[in-house]
Every structure is written in structure tokens, then in C-alpha cells.
UniProtKB/TrEMBL annotation, chains A, B:
Keyword Lyase appears in the UniProt entry: no
Name used for this protein in its record: Exostosin-like 2
Main localisation: endoplasmic reticulum
GO MF annotation list: alpha-1,4-N-acetylgalactosaminyltransferase activity; glucuronyl-galactosyl-proteoglycan 4-alpha-N-acetylglucosaminyltransferase activity; metal ion binding
Gene that encodes it: Extl2
Length: 330, 330
């Protein structure tokens, strides 16, 4: 009887124990949840080179670059340039954007004159568009892109140095052709080169863009270009111009800094005259510069602001081309 | 009787409840402790300008710099330089490190010829030491320090540009005098200037130090200098030399990058000849350069490795001093 009696309270206690254990578990979960919420979430690194790294990239793909060259109506020049650029150090691959619609690519001839140290891929296009060169090509395996116009020759030495500079400024467009915008009292922007002076600058000059026709930039910017407002593509196609200005807007918006780093070239040449096609570049058109001012203002409207920032930094190689070129001859 | 019976188990249960509650608390503490250990501990930001910001800093102290100039036996030159540097833009304060032991500071005369736009503080020293200028002066309110030798004049324009460059490279020594070390096959290092060529360099030249006798650097490096091995101070005092080499070691170790960024000066002058004291700088001593090679090897031994890295970047101002100085005259 006594024992019988005492089972009841025992059971009661068992139930309370059960309630307690569940309370313990719930509290533990709450505490765990609360503290876990305080853990850091992985932040996006601002430096583009440290994000979205394909696992497949070989080491060589990391310390080398891909040359992207768009060509139109200058196949003789193209072949001359392809020959020249084959000898560039750190060159991983060449992607030729073939804008000669319906025309056969010179691949057969190229291969017949091989072997060549660096593979060349011809990307046949269906429409002759300025922005064809700004695709996110699947053949592109390197972080670094060197984009060159098909009439411009830059010395191997300048390219090797500029690539080493790009490796120190991977989020910028590192190139040889600086340009700038000027804001006028009317609020309308004007596009120009070093001849166009801004009284506000004080001593020296400044630039707010580095053209991509002779520049290194990060391949992730080609991905980013695919996600721009339709109006940007429309503007570029309407003018067959300004894709380089758009890229500078894109980079300046991404970094919040000047889009470009200007490297002073020692030897850069325009080979236009050398082509037998007699074709001369788009920039000879009377409206070329006017179009580019027009584009700057359009892009400011599309992006709802002026992201371009000024820089007055010019980088050259210490002790080259002249021994002691850092000594001033004054 | 029945009730009497059931009190006993009740008390027993009370004790068990008590035990349980304490178990709960202990478990909670353990879990809390474990999860808290997972929380991020505040990391030292690599960029020195974003650490240890005195709350008191005025905005002007953030976008301005302090000139620190050590002087010995050239008071006439000092006054000439003080007059020159009074006109430099963004100059917040001048700290004169007075190494003329026992000699009266020219404060009275300086003030009698006032007013002066920028305050000048004379720091009277008790021992004439090279490294007196590397103290963490309480009067120093800016992040940026401009350190100048007392026989060197750099144009206001060069200083304004170099300061804008430093603001973009705040963790580096940004200055006008590059130097380098060379490793010889014997494993012994040699110190030199641009005359000393390293066959390994290929084209052009490189530097691994930027001297602090005409340079901008972050004030936090003066704090860091107070925490160096005693052997470093002993080496500097024994040679009355090499404090600038030690600073380059310190910065290179801190950043893991080249310690300096070289800005090509347009107008830098040595005014040594102008002093009436006839005193000529330490670097005229026959042993000066030998001492500096000696210091490099000693510092490698003290720091148990060679932290200095090479750079071949030379920065100049776009469009200055010549309009279109970025055009190559080739």
C-alpha cells in the first residue's frame, strides 16, 4: 500500500521531468539560434579578382591574359598583328571577334603557317556590331583580358609592364589611351582628349576614362556588361560607338573610384595606313567625337548620374626606356 | 496520513528540480561559451588609415598632413625651409625635431616675424640621435606625415601631388627618393641607388625602398617603430644612419608589399651649400654607403628574413609639368 501510494507522485514527477527536458532543448535551440545569428556572413570582396573564380582555372590562366581583338575589313592588318602578339609574354590565348559577316575566316592559312605558340580562336559573328567584342566568351579562361583594336600595335615591352600594373590594380581598366569628360556650366557634358582643358583642374591635366581599345581589364566586367540596361545596348548599336565609354561607366560604378589607370606607353602605333583595304576606322567619321559627347550625356541619363571620377596619375616604368628616366632634366 | 506520505516524495522531487535547473544553467553556459568562441574577433585592418583613429581628429586633420623636420647645425637653412613650407597646401602643423643639444630654439625670432599660417612646434631633444625624428609625437594629429630632411627643398606642387598619391596608397611610403638592395651570389646584400644594376632585372630598373627624408607615410608607422627589437635601435644609434632603411623594413613587413611608391619629382633641390655653418650632411662621410649595406644585412638578421620587395612603378602627374607630357617624343 505504501509503495502503491508512492508510485503516483513518482509518475507525476516523471511528467514534470519530461516537460523540463523539452524546456531545456527549446531554450538551447533559442540560445544557439540567437548566437548563430551573430556569426559573420561571408562578404563580397570588392576586388573582382577574388570573386567567382572558376575552380577549373589553371595556374597559367591566373598569371596570364587573353587577348580579345575585334576585326572588320582589315584581315591583312589582323594577320600582321596576330603574328606580332604571338610573341607577347604571359599571353594565354587570342580570341578574334570576326565582324566580317559572311566572309571566310583565315583559319586555314593561319594554321598552314603554324606552329604558333599561342592558340587563336576565331569567333564568327552574325551581325557587325561594335559591342560584339564585349561578350562573355566561353573560351575566356583568364581573369585578365587585353583588348586591342585591330589597327593598333603596342610594343611587347609596354604590354608586359602594363600587365604587371594591372595585377596591382585588377579592378581598374589599365591602358594606354586616357580620355575625359568636362562638365559645362549648362550642365551638359562634353567628351574630349588632353586638348580639352578644364579651368577647374588647376595645374596639369586629368582623365576620367581609359579606352578599352588598348587596355587590360578584369574578365568579370564582361559578365557585368551582359547585365546592363537595354538602353545602353541600344545606344551603342545606334551609334556603332561608345562601347568603351559604357565600360568606363560600368567600372566606375562598380569601384566608386576612377575607372582607369593610365600607363604611359613607350611605343604605341596606329597601323591603319598599312591596310590594303583602304578602310579607315570609325573614328574618322565627322560625327565621331560629337557622338561620344552625346553618349556621355545619354549614359548619365540612363544610369541616373555621372559615375566617372578624375585621376591625374600617370604610371611609367622606373628606369625604362632611359636609364635614370626618373632624373629630371631641369 | 496520506498527505503526510506524499510530502516526502515531494521534497525529493524539489531537490531533483533544483539539480535540473542547475544542469540547465550549466549547459546553457557551455553552449553560450562554445558559440561565442565562434564569433569573429575584431581583425586588424591591413589599411593603416582605418585603425586607431583618435576620436578627437578634426576633419582638417584627416585631409591634411604634418611636416616633421629634424634639424642639426643648420638653423639658417631650417628657417629658410620653414618659410617655404608655410605655403604648402594641406599642411596642418610643423614639428621641428631640435637636435642642437643645449642650443636655444629660434622660437622667439620665429614668432617675432609672424604671423605664420601654420603652427610650428619645436621639440627640444636631450641627445642628438638620428632616430629622434621617429618618435610618436603627441602633437601629431594627422594620419599623414611628411618627413623632410633639413637640407632638402621640394616644390609645393610636387608635395601637393604626392599627398594626393599618398591618399590613394596610405599604407605605403610615398616619396621622391627610391633606393634598392641587391642580393649577391654570396648571399650578402648590397645597398645602392639606380647606378647599381641587377642583371636579373631585365629591362628597366627597380627599387625596394623609398627614403623617408622626402616622403609621406602614415603616422601609425611611428607608433609601430616604438615596438621594434632593441637591436634595431642599437644599430641606428651605433651608425647614426639607416633609420630610413629600418622604416622600409617595417612597412614591407606590415604590408607584405613593396614598402614604397615612387613619385617622380619635378623640382627637388639640395640646399646644403646654402648653409653658413658649412656643415655638410652625414651622407658625405666616406663610410655612409658601406654603413647602409651593413645595415641591410644586419636588419635581415634581426628580422630573420628579407621583407623588402621590388617595384618598378614610377608615378608622375598627368599633363604636368608639360602639357601632354604623356605623349612620347619618339
Amino acid at each position: 500500500r505504501y509503495f502503491h501510494f508512492c508510485k503516483l507522485p513518482g509518475r507525476v514527477m516523471g511528467i514534470r521531468l519530461l516537460r523540463f527536458t523539452s524546456v531545456v532543448i527549446i531554450v538551447l535551440l533559442l540560445v544557439a539560434g540567437a548566437l548563430t545569428a551573430l556569426l559573420p556572413n561571408i562578404k563580397d570582396d570588392k576586388m573582382p579578382n577574388s570573386r567567382r573564380e572558376p575552380k577549373t582555372q589553371s595556374q597559367s590562366a591566373l598569371d596570364s591574359f587573353t587577348l580579345i581583338m575585334q576585326t572588320y575589313n582589315r584581315t591583312d592588318l589582323l594577320l600582321k598583328l596576330l603574328n606580332h602578339y604571338q610573341a607577347i609574354p604571359h599571353l594565354h590565348k587570342v580570341i578574334v571577334v570576326w565582324n566580317n559577316i559572311g566572309e571566310k575566316i583565315p583559319e586555314e592559312m593561319w594554321n598552314s603557317l603554324g606552329p604558333h605558340p599561342v592558340p587563336v580562336v576565331f569567333k564568327v559573328q552574325t551581325v557587325n556590331r561594335m559591342r560584339n567584342r564585349l561578350q562573355n566568351f566561353p573560351e575566356l579562361e583568364t581573369k585578365a583580358v587585353l583588348m586591342m583594336d585591330d589597327d593598333t600595335l603596342v610594343s611587347a615591352h609596354d604590354l608586359a609592364f602594363a600587365f604587371s600594373v594591372w595585377q596591382q590594380f585588377p579592378e581598374h581598366i589599365v591602358g594606354f589611351v586616357p580620355r575625359k569628360h568636362i562638365s559645362t556650366p549648362s550642365g551638359v557634358y562634353s567628351y574630349g582628349s588632353f586638348e580639352l582643358q578644364n579651368p577647374g583642374f588647376g595645374n596639369g591635366d586629368q582623365y576620367s576614362m581609359v579606352l578599352i581599345g588598348a587596355a587590360f581589364f578584369h574578365s568579370r566586367y564582361l559578365e557585368d556588361f551582359q547585365r546592363q540596361p537595354e538602353a545602353v545596348y541600344a545606344l551603342i548599336d545606334e551609334t556603332q560607338n561608345c562601347d568603351d565609354i559604357a565600360m568606363n561607366f560600368l567600372v566606375a560604378k562598380h569601384t566608386g573610384k576612377p575607372s582607369g589607370v593610365f600607363v604611359k606607353p613607350v611605343d604605341i602605333r596606329n597601323l591603319e595606313k598599312d591596310t590594303n583595304s583602304g578602310y579607315s576606322g570609325m573614328w574618322h567619321r565627322a560625327e565621331h567625337l560629337l557622338q561620344r559627347s552625346y553618349c556621355v550625356n545619354k549614359l548619365v541619363h540612363i544610369y541616373d548620374g555621372m559615375p566617372l571620377k578624375y585621376s591625374n596619375i600617370m604610371i611609367s616604368q622606373f628606369g625604362f626606356p632611359n636609364y635614370a628616366n626618373h632624373k629630371n632634366k631641369m
